[in-house]
Amino acid sequence: MDVLSDAVTAMRTGQPHSGRVRRPAPFGQWFPPVDGAGFHIVLQGSCWLFPPDGAPLALGVGDVAFLPHGSAHGLADSRSTPLIATSASLAELPPAHDEGVPTGQDLTSGSAAATVMLCGAYLLDRSRAHPLLADLPEVIHLPARVGRPPGLRAAVDLLGDELEQTRLGGDAMLPALLEVLLLHILRAWFDEQSAHGTANRWVEALRDPAIAAALRAIHGEPGRQWTVEELGMQAGLSRAAFARRFTALVGQPPLAYLTWWRMTLAARLLRDSDAPLAAIAGKVGYTSEFAFAHAFKREYGLAPGGFRHRP
Which range marks the domain in which residue 266 is found? Predict the structure, then answer.
């Protein structure tokens, strides 16, 4: 199984939102934080992005700005344009999957000095953020350039084309394209980090063949009764060498990560399904419903039934 795909799936709480936005100059807007992740992609013109901390970023045609933690931020046509606070967030763009809702917002009609952007948000549960995503910076800036990953460029082109007009199949196409875009953004950033030698701990873990093999095994069969020795065999390392390397790169020992991932999967199943507790316990490696409930309460502070029925 793919750790990145699992990490995103575990955090998802709803359909992504997106709109094709046309902003005439001058414009300046301060966006409140969103419970998820947001993005801006420049299709025409240019603008400045003001992160919550740090220097403003100049965005040009083809540039991607991704805010993995949904941070508050500003957008303006120039560094000197005042930013007007608004209560509208990126998550309040028209839902890409809602029937009869326009897929884009046109903020003006016919200004030559306008910036056209794709903007949107992914709704994510931050209470159990996978460390792979929790370690990302506040803003990921992927400048347009020759040789940019063709998959990312293709995803942007397809999404922009789909948002221009309502077409048959759009209700299914738009959410799918937004998911593809998210994964291409993350792929591109991870690749850049590795290429420039600035990879964080989790990027290094996924690039390490031995640790990546162990992570694939855990994510592929989370209900299996793994031992450190068996995971070391998957990695091609001795028990001791594997435990040391896994802990150094992942940030916790192998069985501690296995338990954390099992509880994360259990929380998602409790939230998103009506499966009986015994069935969920079995899926995440517990033959006893009592043992599962004890482990779950230790992680979440709530029994599984209470977690499922909380508001």
Answer: 208-309
CB-based contacts of 264, cutoff 8 Å, min separation 6:
10, 128, 130
Q: Count the domains in the chain.
A: 2
CA distance 71 to 33: 5
Of the listed ranges 31-35, 195-199, 307-311, the least confidently predicted one is 195-199
Amino acid 99: pLDDT: 30
The pLDDT, as a whole number, for residue 2 is 81
From 148, 236, 140, select the one nearest 186 (Cα to Cα). 140
Flag whether 172 is in a domain.
Answer: yes
- Token representation of residue 259: 């338990």
Task: Quote the pTM value.
Answer: 0.84
Q: Is the residue at 203 inside a domain?
A: no
Of the residues 195, 224, 258, the one at which a domain ends = 195
* Joined tokens for residue 135: 């370690």
Cα–Cα distance between 209 and 215 in angstroms, integer?
10
3-state helix, strand, coil in the chain (%, to 5): 45, 20, 35
pLDDT tens-digit readout, 203-222: 888 889 999 999 999 999 99
d(CA 39, CA 73): 11
Verify that 72 and 172 share a domain, yes or no: yes
- Interatomic CA distance for residues 189 and 266, integer angstroms: 29
Q: Helices in the chain by DSSP H: which ranges?
A: 3-11, 131-134, 150-164, 170-195, 201-207, 209-220, 228-235, 239-250, 254-272, 277-283, 289-300, 304-309
Here the tokens at position 47 are: 């603008």
> What tokens were used for 284?
């995440």
Looking at the chain, how many residues does it have? 311
pLDDT digits (tens, 9 = 90+) for 7-48: 888 888 878 888 888 889 999 999 999 888 999 999 999 999
